[in-house]
Amino acid sequence: MTTLTALTIAEARAALKARKVSAAELTEAYLDAMARARVLNAYVAETPDQARAMAKASDGRLARGEGGALEGIPLGIKDLYATEGIHTQACSHILDGFRPPYESTVSANLWKAGGVLLGKLNMDEFAMGSSNETSYYGNVINPWRRAGSDTALVPGGSSGGSAAAVAGHIAAAATATDTGGSIRQPAAFTGTVGIKPTYGRCSRWGIIAFASSLDQAGPITRDVRDAAIMLKAMASVDPKDTTSVDLPVPDYEAAIGRPVKGLRVGIPKEYRADGMAQEILDLWDRGARWLKEQGAEIVEISLPHTRYALPAYYIVAPAEASSNLARYDGVRYGLRVPGDDIVDMYENSRAAGFGREVQRRIMIGTYVLSAGYYDAYYVRAQKVRTLIKRDFDRAWDKVDVVLTPATPSPAFAPGEITDPVQMYLNDIFTVTVNMAGLPGISVPAGLSRDGLPLGLQLIGKPFGEETLFQTAAAIEQAAGRFTPKFWW
Question: What is the rounded CA–CA span in Å between residue 315 and residue 34?
Fold first, then answer.
């Protein structure tokens, strides 16, 4: 049999069901791979004892013919998700030692489906970053390298640990979160598939908040079929999250393989920004050609307020972060740095506990919410957000799905981008999706001239994930799959 850790979820599911391999054997293969790949720094907490216990229970259920949709599948969980009794710190010093007495709804859904917990995955602190360089536990290393180079590369962010673990075959799949592109950008950088579902499709309960009106849970996987399997298991309505939507969760896997003939694919002219790398433009054109060759209709569309999306996002997101992160004060849990009085303790704890990027965004958010600036910045940004959503609403009269690049470049080296604004530009193609609450998927579509993976993004109608899986599978079939050479 192929190396066990190289199996997709669908392949592993079939092998487990046929009793060709046990969940215990599959889990041990992943635990061994994790030990060999610690140089990637993808995990901040490993849970081998729990993994073995869960795998043993899965084997019992499989023997009785009672296996769930993910029975015996080893998974990594982003450190933003609360896991009962297990390290949950959003990779921040401010939450030192926090082990929640509860489980997030999404991870609980995965365990109900039979998933096996391998450990908690590294990420940008409080999900604030595009390169996984802001983690208190150090940066994650991308399993990919430039052709002929040993230079380390970033895996993207904030879900860099999730993407690196899946690409490096040290998790069959991983949970991630997306506030402005934090699933799709790292997926593009690592040759994996990442879907950010419609806002409200997955519960946010038990997921540490960054920007509550933008955050959404989703999976990072090896291929499109696995993404469909994972999202089906993760999604649910949840009375503990009033923003979750009470709609049936479709069988997303059934959409894989449906022909795209007759599908109208929008190409937004505003995404052809000045100075775009030619290889990104070529990739985009190639993706459109693949879909056209399979019978889709390519339609040019206009999304005129796209140019305002990034600045509006970097007003709304920090504003919500400023409010959400006010709860971390050193009093009830996490880091506490003593002071002369309680105010001094607050200041000392927050100064020591929050990293530079988190402090920057708190300060920006506090500023735009302050008296005298609220109307000038925050209210105007929310108006722009409404216009962005209206652009898409009008586009849906003409097209069924929108095709764009996922990122403006392939992965870069740690420390290569030091200007915060330049780093924020990594989200230029992804933030509109969060601002409008739409679903978006990144699918590997080719390699750069340096041999690094490049992704294409598909944007869908609200709760149109089935169309995204259908179209992404067509691109995947044309492009093939991409796997790094394991150098560790």
Answer: 39
**Spatial separation of the C-alpha atoms in residues 201 and 482, rounded to whole Å:** 29
In 203-357, beta strands by DSSP E = 216-221, 264-268, 297-301
Torsion of CA 278, 284, 287, 291, to 10 degrees: -140
Q: HSE on the CB side for 90, CA within 13 Å? A: 22
Tokens of 200: 């409200």
What number of H helices and E strands is found in the chain? 15, 11
Query: So what's the pLDDT on residue 1?
Result: 44
**Nearest CA to 190 among 219, 154, 226?**
154
- Would you say residue 2 has pLDDT above 80? no
Do residues 471 and 221 make contact, with C-beta atoms less than 8 angstroms apart? no
Task: Give dist(CA 178, CA 180) in Å, integer.
Answer: 6
Q: Dump pLDDT digits (tens) for 53-81.
A: 999 999 999 999 999 999 999 999 999 99
- Residues with catalytic annotation? 78, 158, 182
